[in-house]
Amino acid sequence: MQVLDKATARPHTTDNVYYAHLTPLAFLERSAYVYANKPAIIYGDRKITYAQMQERCRRVASALRKNGLQTGDRVAFLSPNIVPMAEAHFAVPMAGGVLVAINIRLSADEIAYILEHSGAKFLFVDTEFNSLVKPGQVGHIVNLIDDRSCKPFDGYPSYKDFYESGDPEPQPDYLESEYDTISINYTSGTTGRPKGVMYHHRGAYLNALGENITSHIEADAVYLWTLPMFHCNGWCYTWAIPAAGATSVCLRKFDPAVAWDLIEKEGVSNMCGAPTVLIAMANHPRAREVKLKRPLTITTAGAPPSPTILGQMEELGVRVEHVYGLTETYGPHTVCQWQEEWKDLTPEERARKKARQGVSYVIANARTRVVDENMNDVPADGQTMGEVVMRGNNVMKGYFENPEATAQAFRGGWFHSGDLAVMHPDGYIELRDRAKDIIISGGENISTIEVEQVVVKHPAVMECAVIGVPDDYWGEVPKAFVVLKPDVQATPEEIIAFCRDNMAHFKAPKYVEIGDLPKTSTGKIQKFVLRDKEWAGKEKRIN
Predict the structure, then answer these.
(1) Where would a tag sit more exposed on the chain, N or C end, judged by fewer CB atoms within 10 A?
(2) How far is it, in rounded angstroms, from Cα 517 to Cα 255?
(3) Helix spans in 347-483 (H)
């Protein structure tokens, strides 16, 4: 008989008729029933239906158990956006395992640390990345032979051989609680060893539904995978697309020309990416040639998009949903929720509104706050900066085997983002900087985001990053690293003069350097690389 916890009145098991665990595994089960013959995944010329995807995932789960996987064991994937990576998000938890999707751009040393720290028992590795791992690092290896120019590990099965060794029947229910860990996502580790962020089934389920609500994804949607699936489990879209019964179009490597071609060929309705992805697409010649077969929505996060790029996408007829979050919040946690009265604003005013990070997801169940050092809410004046703190259904369980870091992140009963923002009178937050990126020049705080948004208004500028660099008098001053648009010229002096005409002089960059920008695999600009170069041999920055 079902017994309730007296303190919470919540059932301990799933025996009761009014309770079922919230788990993304239910999404595939439903879509395989409702949309059995519909394409779940398109990759090149291949089409895998929902019924086929379910059988393949069951076989992989069965094979994992046959090869010794125990409930709670970690299964690592080192893979781009290919079919096995999409299936892993169901096959691994279906077997009772915990998915560890590893960033393919990491070094061999970083990957070795993650494999060791997570205690991964299995490693599924794309042959392109075999040079980054060694067979002895894990007990079991499975070759993902997608790039046939690279040799697989000898003596280990291919993905096809592995899943064909499993059974197609339904797997036992290994889930004991909806709070069981479904995945561990490792942070970038730019200030030390990466931390393993634990997601649970309930959070993944709810955030997936939150993505569908936010990005307007329904059963007829076609989603293009430009966002890496290893990044926050693809912001939970790996589970969101099957939840809707929509179709995923896999793309091994982002290329703006290929992306536009697939948008046109497959009738893509949705995709995600950092603002740099939007910039690459908006400035590609194909952007003006493609005839959209249906409305296209791009959900962007990873860095605050400038009003300039938002305006460019609007001109192309693309709807941009601006969201914000961190690895610790399952990816997106807030959305710049559209307000109907904004449609009457000028394009520039509307873009400024849409550049804000907004309000909590409907599934988060808590208001996102901006607080001072004493955890008091800052005035909602759009000027006073504080730290963004969150709590709710899409905040991590904690850091894997790191209780000290977890306690520090959760101090005061809220997750501390480390991001500085202001709160507007309408309750929308707007980022000003990472705490570590804010420039303190002569005692004045300068937001690098504010400076960047002015720099990219220059007609020759495609993209930029601003950091503080050493200055003997002011301590530090802004420097802009700029990427120019193709076939357009501008001098550093012209860009500096433009900025001084459009913002307070003390905020304008004192230096401009034109060239390429270092980026992560998800399109984030690596400011720490720029900063390390500029501050080499200097005193450590105080912020």
Answers:
(1) N
(2) 17
(3) 347-354, 403-409, 448-455
Position 501 in a domain: yes
Least confident of 118-132, 323-337, 467-481: 467-481
The C-alpha atoms of residue 4 and residue 20 are separated, in whole angstroms, by: 14
Q: Which two tokens stand for residue 506?
A: 């003390």
CA distance linking residue 87 with residue 53, whole number of Å: 7
Tokens, residue 462: 């495609």
pLDDT in tens, 30-52: 999 999 999 999 999 999 999 99
Is a pLDDT exceeding 70 seen at residue 149? yes
Q: Which domain holds residue 465?
A: 451-534
Q: Whole-angstrom Cα distance, residue 383 to residue 376?
A: 16
Work out how many domains the chain is built from and give that number: 1
SS3 243: helix
pLDDT digits (tens, 9 = 90+) for 62-89: 999 999 999 999 999 999 999 999 999 9
C-alpha dihedral, 469 to 472 to 473 to 477, nearest 10°? -10
pLDDT digits (tens, 9 = 90+) for 418-437: 999 999 999 999 988 777 78
Those residues whose C-beta lies under 8 Å from the C-beta of residue 29, and which sit 6 or more positions away, are 54
Q: How confident is the model at residue 341 (pLDDT cuts 50, 70, 90)?
A: very high
Residue 216 lies in a domain: no
In 102-214 the beta strands, taken as DSSP E runs, fall at 122-126, 140-144, 181-186, 196-200
Type of residue numbered 359: V
Q: Does the residue 74 lie in any domain? A: no
Q: What is the pLDDT of residues 237-262, one digit of tens each?
A: 999 999 999 999 999 999 999 999 99
Q: Residue 180 in contact with residue 202, Cβ under 8 Å?
A: no
Question: DSSP characters for 300-325?
Answer: E-SSPPPHHHHHHHHHTTEEEEEEEE
DSSP 9-54: --BSSS-STT-----THHHHHHHHHHSTTSEEEEETTEEEEHHHHH
**Per-residue pLDDT tens for 182-203?**
999 998 755 568 899 999 999 9
Beta strand extents in 315-460 (DSSP E only): 318-326, 331-335, 359-360, 369-371, 386-390, 398-399, 415-423, 429-434, 439-441, 444-446
pLDDT in the model for residue 525? 87
Give the alpha-carbon dihedral of 205, 207, 212, 215, to 10 degrees. Answer: -160
pTM of the predicted model as reported, rounded to 2 decimal places: 0.86
Indicate whether 484 belongs to any domain. yes
User: What's the rounded Cα separation, in Å, for the pair 360 and 30?
Assistant: 28
Average pLDDT over residues 299-317: 88
In the chain, the N- to C-terminal Cα span, in Å, equals 58
The CATH number assigned to the domain holding 484 equals 3.30.300.30
